[in-house]
Amino acid sequence: MRIALIEPDSRHAEVMDRLLFAGGHTCQPFTNSSDFFAWIDTQTCDLLITDQWAGDLPSEDVILAARAILPGLPAMVMIHAPRESEIVASLHAGADDCISKPARGPELLARVDALLRRAAVRRPPSPSRGRFGEYAFDVARGLARFDGQFVALTPKECRFALLLFANLGRPVSRAHILESVWATRRDLKSRTLDTHASRLRTKLQLHPERGYSLSPLYGFGYQLDRLFAEPPAKRTKGAKGTRSPGGADRDEKESSIETL
User: Locations of Basic and acidic residues compositional bias (predicted)?
Assistant: First the structure.
């Protein structure tokens, strides 16, 4: 996950960076909130960790302003030798958790993981296969199956689809998508991500009439929603148009993907 860190103490920021990297996260450090807000105008993050004094603003003001840009952003406050009253004040002011400084590695990573779980950021259960309701995916074969039909997908389209369905009804940040689908922490042009989302919407028929909506979240990422519980009525098996040319090949694909 991509974590934004506001820490005026450069030495402690370096320690935090190493700890978070060891836990499989990307850390973007800042010495003050002004630099953080300049960055977040064009970037996204999955979690904010800030010092009680963010270099130029108190943590409660930073968290409030950050959530105006990224609604629901989880936030953790670091406090040196915290008193109970300081922890209570931070939590009442909007922090999701507090941690003492200097950070202790295992505790820090456990608290980060707990926050991300509560924020409902999920990874697909399998990087290569998955079944979600009427949709089944096989990344290795580049196939998606739904409503008795097969659709060819590129590997990136398959991984993108798996990530969206694993987080059905939850926002997925651009940073999370880039790391899970493109295996990169560097930014890509918005058009690249938008193009892949548009292709998925078309290929998988993620439209309201089928009970799904794939929507861009401005400045954040994408969200796939289920609009009603039951899939639309399917045509009767054997009806005209349900058998495609190359039936033998289709049966072979069906047999392989039924194991999902």
Answer: 248-260
